[in-house]
Fold each of these.
Amino acid sequence: MSTALIVIDAQESFRQHPLWATISNPDIVADISRLVEHARAAGDPVVWVLHAEPGSGGVFDPAGGAVRLQPGLEPRDDEPVVVKRSINAFTTTHLAQELTRHGVGRLRLAGIRTEQCVETTARVASDLGYEVEVVIDATATHPLALHDGSGELTPDEVIARTAAALSGRFATITTVAEVLAR
C-alpha cells in the first residue's frame, strides 16, 4: 500500500497573521522539509494543501498574495497543490482523486493548525477508509480560547488534546524522528 505525505496549510497566510507570534512550532518548515525529503527518497507522493477564503479580504484571500507555501517549501512539478475552502482537505478539493490515481491507502499528515485542519483531515480520511498517521511534531498551532471565555489552552495542551483524541480512533500518532528512522 502506497503512503502519501499530505502537507496541510504550511502557507504564508499564517506567517502574515498576528497569531504567528504565538505559533507552537516556528520552525515547522524545517520539520516538514525533512518529511518531504524522506517521502521523495522513498518514492512516496507528496501533496500540498493550501487554504483559501476568496473575497474575504484577509490573509487567506488569494487576492492578497499570501495563499502560497512558506519560503523553503517547494513542490516539484509532479506534486499537486490542492486549494481548499473548507477545514478538511477533502470536501472542496480533488484530493481523493489524486490519491486514487497514485494508489494511496495510507496518509501521513503534517501542517498548520494541529486541532483544526490537520485533525479534521485525519478524521475525514479515516472515515473514507485511509490509514492515517499524524506526525504530531510536524504540526503547529496557537493558543486556543476556552468556549466559556475563562482562559485558553496553551499550544502544547491543544496538541496533546488532539493527539489523545485521534490516537487509536482516527490515526496513529508519530514523530518526525520515528518517520525518518523507518
Note: The chain has one domain: 2-181.
Amino acid sequence: MAPYESDDAQGADRGEEARSGRRRAARYAVPVAVVGVAAATIGLVPALADSGDPDLPRITAQQLIQKIAASDVQRLSGTVKVSTDLGLPDLGGLESGLTSGMTSGAGSGSADPQARLTELVTGTHTLRVAADGPDRQKLSLVEQGAEYSVIHNGKDVWGYDSKSNQVSHGTAPAGKDRRAEPPATPKDFADEALKSVDDTTSVTVDGTARVAGRDAYKLLIKPRQSGTTVGAISIAVDARTGMPLKFTLTPKSGGAAVLDAGFTEVSFARPAASAFAFTPPKGAKVTEREDAPGKGAQRPGKGLEGIQGKGLEGAAGPTVLGKGWTSIATFDTGAKGGLPTGAKGGDAAGFLGSLGEKVSGSFGKGTVFSTRLVNALITDDGKVYAGAVTKDALVKAADAGK
C-alpha cells in the first residue's frame, strides 16, 4: 500500500466537486514526466525520521514526487517568510533605481505587481497568502506600517499600495497560466525546480521535519554536474496533502541559503469570500494596465533555461548553451565597450563596472559580476554570458563562442 492511500480514498468520497477541482487545478501540477524520471536519478532509499523529527511512514523519492504531482490543494491561507541572500553589495539608493528601470519605469510606491514584487529579490519579507481555486488568490507583502497586496478575483487583478494609496488594475491572464502574481510561495519555487529534474540531477528523501505545525517529508535535489554554483535544493512536503511547505536553495560555496521560502503558519480551510473583494479606496490614484501581470514573467528554473523575451535595450532573446545546471544564457546587447550605457543607465553602468572583476581570454576582455548564485560576464564587444555557473565556466563559454 502506498503511503497515505487512505487520504486519497477519503478525497475520492468528496464526489464530483473534488474531481472538478482537480481539472481546474491542472495548471498547478508538476508535469507527469517528472514522475517517470529514471531510477538512476531518483533515490530509492526510503526516508527515516531523524531523532526528534516526526515518525512518518517510509517513502521513496519516486513516491514523494508522485505525491506532489497528485496534490490538489485548492484552498488555503497562511503566512510565508521569504529570505533572499544573493550576496549583493550595498548599493544604497542605486539599487532601487536599477530595479525601477528594469520594471517598465515603475518607481517607488508603484502599485504594479511586477514592479513591487521584485522587492523579494533581496532581504527578508513576510507575505500573507490566500487562495480559493484558480480564480481567486491574494498575496500581501507586509511592511512596517504599510502593506502591498495583489488581489486576483475572477477576471480582475488589483494591485494596491497602502502607503502611497495607489492602485493598479488589469485583467487576469487567460488559458492555462491564470496566476496573477510572480512566484513567491514554496509551491511556486518547488514546481519550477521539479521541472528541472533530469539525468543531471540527483533526487533523494532526506528525512522528515515539522513545518508550520505540520508533519513533512524532505526532498533533496542536488546537481550531478560540476561547474554550477547551486549546492542543493531542499523541499519540505506536507505529509498529508503533498503540498510543498518550505523551499530552500543553498549555494555550492556554503553558508546561508540564497533563497529560503517557507510557511510559518498555514490552514487548508476555505478563506472567506471577503478576502478577495477589493474596491479602490476613496482618493486613490488608479492606473489601468494594458498588459496583464504575469505576462512574460520570469520564473526561476535550472540554470537560466527559463529566461524568455528580450535582453537589454531591445536585444534579441538569449541563446542557451549547454544543458542542465551548467546551462548558460548568452545574447548580444549591441553595445560596444562593455556595459550598456543607455539614457537611464550611464551613471549606474560606471558604478557597477567598478564592482566587477576584469577578465580576459581568447574572446577578448570583459567584466564578470558575481553573486552567490548567478554570475554574468559582459564582454567589451557587448556580449553577455550568464548562468548559475562559475566565473571560469563563463570565460570558457565566451572563448568557445569566438
Note: The chain has two domains: 1-296, 312-400.
